[in-house]
Specification:
The complex is a heterotrimer. Chain B has one domain: Rossmann fold. Helix content of chain B is about 40%, strand content about 20%. Chain B contains eleven helices and nine strands. Chain B has helices at about 25-40, 60, 75-85, 95-105, 105-115, 155, 165, 185-200, 215-220, 225-240, 250; strands at about 45-50, 65-70, 90-95, 120-125, 125-130, 135, 175-180, 205-215, 240-245. Chain B has a seven-stranded mixed beta sheet with strand order 2-1-3-4-8-7-9, with helices on both faces. Chain B is globular, with a radius of gyration of 17 Å. The relative contact order of chain B is 0.15. Chain C has a seven-stranded mixed beta sheet with strand order 3-2-4-5-7-6-13, with helices on both faces. In chain C, strands 10-12-11-14-15 form a five-stranded mixed beta sheet, sandwiched between helices. Classes of the chains: A alpha/beta, B alpha/beta, C alpha/beta. At the A-C interface, helix 1 and strand 2 of A face helix 7, strand 8 and helix 9 of C. Strand 2 of chain B pairs parallel with strand 9 (about 205) of chain C.
């Protein structure tokens, strides 16, 4: 088993941390995992992305051209990764920040209003957790509870009071995505 | 011979090796002053010297202490490395003006700025001695060298760098003085300054440096006597002697 | 110890601390700055020496000074900074004292960029600094390997009184992976018979790289080579993947090696008998392992993130007995596994022939792939 996930968005949308949470959960589940960010000047204000690879064997390339799974938290990321996603893959799109529908029909595109849901929970920074929750509907190797445990185990102590809201964001994202799946004809 | 008549004795801090310096060169005097201070302070066996690239490249042959040999200009960085892992040892560099004030300007300024607890003996003889008397950063305006053959033209070759004045502006410097080696009185004063510099280090009072105005009769094309006269008449006016930085704590030290 | 998620650069820093690092001297440069930042906090916390130097030149000479005292000392930098350190590196080599230097490589030459590259292989393996000197070069491909090789680097440096360099590309430095650390212990100072740490109750010592008499320098050079022969005999490390029945053998180190692994897996799933040799010590290079593969392989493919540097070591070993092909992505580009898979397909469907310089046909293919005009 090997799966690759790309998470992309603006700097400040929690792109890198979203990937790290998945990496922690995969590690705690006994899987091999790599997390690699785009780094350098593009970190400052531009588009940020990270690639997470999880596998049950020694991982080769930490980067992937055509990932089966991706999260696009803003419009440029939607346009970019919709194009490169592997056929049959799943793309979670932050509906709050895009203005057009999907162009490809050979992938599953799940529109989730991540920013709005996060604001409803009371912390707009949680949009990354909403999106991660949504992605988990396509990643049976990691369950929502696994991510919750990862957050509990690896979030710095000073952020522990944020756990309940993080859990809620994951759950709301997962549930919203499930409804989106229901809309997709089998 | 009774001790009453003893006018010269080899310092304990010296090896038996005769120096390779030219007749009339004051490197030998500077070496001797350092050796006498190490003897008097009883710190020979805990001292680690850092030799430069330049005429004093073989300094390690003459001092009976542990010694390392630095790349050109890098002695203060190397001394930093030694001192940071062995803070209870005494570490000194011995550098010329090309080494310290040209290629090694970055290293000396930053070692001083960090207040590294090291002692620097800085020989200013206004030229690159070992490579045959080229213009140094300290060469006087108009002074002829093998690479400023019509005399240093400040329009195209810049002005001399006054190292003691410059370093004395840095907070990390505990003690910074300029002395001359051109006559017995000044040699005695130079020794006192060297002692103060090492005392600064063993007391942990910051970076210490003594700049010594020195002769280079061979490359200057002068007799030893005329070279001493040149230091007195030409170098001292350009590089005034004195204490450029002496912290209050160091003023209290009686040497 | 349980596994933790470690970032490559920070993992190297902590592994060095746990290996008994007593002093670190460095200067900021992307993509290795996390090593400096991490140690700026960690070393003082443990009462050990840390200095952010005025330049890489300052840093390497502080390393030189501390190394003379016999303690475990390290610096780290990235390509342009490593170039600046080459003076000090040569002096350290000439003085025959141990020191560890990490190069998190980026695209070059010149200022280049900060993207992952393997373009300093030649600088690390074949020289860089002036003079004739051997050095050990380790090339980790994962965070765990970076930790293990950091620990090893100090042992090797001391055992052979030799510079040990760790070269990795920026992606391994920035990557996070689960990894296990060794336990933290107090550094034990070994009383080396050569260390200049103050002549208390012993003869004084001199450490220098100067041998004014050419015959003395020659003897020193020969001694270094003899020492290097021991390193070659005892310290070669590499990893083999799917080589038992491989007709085609890929050779790649670091990230290029692991990207190749993905391609090998996919090709194997398609029934192509391809394997991978991943050198871990690029100096000493695994010549013998590669030589043995020459009798089994129908063709080699060298994959690198440069214009073909390790390629020369492979050509030197294979000596025209079978075709050697090359695929590289220089300039800070990390290849995708699909690209190497395409190369495997090309070689497996043949024909491939022995070429004087495999870079030439690669260059032609590159202009085609990138759809740019041949100048």
């Amino acid at each position: 088993m090997q799966k690759e996930i790309i998470i992309a968005g603006f700097g400040g949308q929690g792109v890198l941390f979203g990937g790290q949470v998945l990496a922690y959960a995969a590690m705690d589940n006994g899987l091999d995992v790599t997390w690699i960010p785009s780094y350098g000047p593009e970190m400052r204000g531009g588009t940020a992305n990270c690639t997470v690879v999880i596998a049950d064997h020694e991982i080769g390339s930490p980067l992937v051209k055509n990932p089966p799974l991706a999260i696009a938290l803003n419009l440029p990321s939607f346009d970019k990764y919709e194009e490169t996603l592997a056929k049959g893959g799943t793309l979670v799109v932050n509906k709050s920040m895009v203005d057009h529908a999907q162009r490809r029909n050979d992938i599953h595109t799940l529109f989730v209003p991540c920013s709005e849901i996060a604001e409803e929970i009371g912390d707009r920074k949680l949009l990354n957790m909403v999106a991660v929750g949504a992605l988990l509907t396509s990643l049976p190797e990691i369950k929502v509870e696994d991510v919750e445990k990862a957050l509990e185990g690896h979030l710095p102590a000073r952020h522990k009071h944020l756990l309940p809201k993080n859990f809620e964001a994951l759950k709301r994202g997962f549930e919203h995505a499930q409804k989106e799946w229901d809309k997709i004809p089998a | 011979m009774t001790t009453e008549n003893l006018v010269y004795e080899r310092p304990e801090a010296f090896t038996e090796m005769p120096t390779h310096y030219c007749p009339g060169c004051t490197h030998g005097v500077a070496h001797r002053l350092v050796a006498e201070v190490l003897d008097e302070m009883g710190i020979v066996d805990k001292t680690i010297g850092v030799a430069p690239v330049g005429c004093a490249v073989f300094a390690y042959n003459y001092f009976d202490t542990d010694f390392v040999e630095a790349p050109h200009g890098r002695a203060p960085a190397m001394a930093t490395g030694v001192k940071r892992v062995l803070p209870d040892r005494v570490v000194f560099t011995y550098q010329g003006d090309g080494d310290l004030a040209s290629i090694g300007m970055g290293e000396i300024v930053h070692a001083a700025a960090r207040g590294e607890n090291i002692t620097v003996i800085f020989i200013n003889n206004a030229n690159y001695g070992m490579t045959g008397g080229q213009m140094a950063p300290t060469t006087l305006p108009g002074m002829k060298t093998s690479s400023s053959q019509s005399g240093r033209d400040v329009e195209t070759q810049g002005y001399p760098i006054k190292v003691s004045e410059m370093l004395s502006t840095l907070e990390g410097v505990g003690y910074c003085a300029r002395r001359s080696l051109h006559d017995p009185k000044n040699i005695r004063l130079a020794k006192k300054a060297i002692r103060t510099a090492f005392e600064t280090q063993v007391r942990g009072l910051g970076f210490s440096m003594v700049e010594l105005l020195s002769t280079c009769p061979t490359n200057w094309g002068m007799t030893p006597v005329n070279a001493l006269k040149f230091v007195e008449e030409r170098m001292i006016p350009a590089y005034p002697l004195g204490d450029y930085k002496i912290s209050d704590a160091i003023k209290q030290i009686k040497v | 110890m349980p596994k933790e998620l470690w970032k490559g650069n920070e993992a190297i820093a902590e592994a060095a601390v746990r290996a008994g690092l007593e002093a670190y001297f460095g200067y900021p440069i992307t993509p290795q700055t996390e090593i400096l930042e991490y140690l700026s906090r960690r070393m003082p916390e443990l009462g050990r020496a840390f200095v952010q130097a005025e330049s890489e030149l300052g840093a390497i000479n502080m390393v030189y000074g501390a190394a003379c005292t016999g303690v475990r000392v390290m610096s780290s930098s990235s390509s342009p900074g490593i170039s600046l350190m080459m003076e000090g590196l040569s002096y350290i080599a000439g003085t025959e004292i141990p020191a560890v230097l990490v190069n998190v490589m980026r695209g070059g030459p010149g200022l280049g960029n900060i993207a992952p590259a393997q373009s300093d292989y030649n600088q690390a393996v074949r020289g860089g600094g002036h003079g004739d000197y051997p050095r050990i070069v380790l090339a980790p491909a994962s965070v765990q390997e970076a930790i293990d090789l950091t620990t090893l680097s100090f042992d090797l440096a001391e055992k052979y009184r030799m510079i040990t360099m760790i070269i990795l590309d920026g992606s391994t430095g920035q990557m996070m992976e689960p990894a296990e650390m060794t336990a933290l212990s107090e550094p034990k100072r070994k009383n080396f018979e050569w260390a200049t740490n103050g002549a208390m109750n012993r003869e004084r010592r001199i450490l220098s790289s100067i041998y004014l008499n050419p015959l003395d320098e020659e003897k020193t050079n020969l001694r270094m080579l003899k020492n290097w022969k021991n390193v070659q005999a005892n310290e070669v490390r590499y990893k083999e993947y799917f080589l038992e029945d491989a007709k085609y053998v890929i050779v790649g180190f670091g990230t290029a090696g692991r990207v190749a692994l993905s391609a090998v897996r996919e090709a194997r799933a398609q029934g192509i008998k391809v394997g991978l040799l991943r050198p871990i010590t690029v100096s000493p290079f695994p010549y013998e392992a590669l030589d043995q593969l020459t009798s089994q392989a129908e063709a080699f493919l060298v994959a690198e993130m440069n214009m073909g540097q390790m390629l020369d070591d492979v050509l030197l070993t294979v000596r025209g007995r079978v075709p050697v092909e090359f695929y590289g992505r220089p300039g800070g580009v990390v290849p995708f596994h699909n690209e190497i898979l395409d190369e495997i397909h090309r070689i497996a469907t043949g024909p491939v022939t022995v070429q004087t310089d495999p870079r030439e046909s690669w260059l032609t293919r590159m202009y085609g792939n990138l759809k740019i005009a041949v100048p």
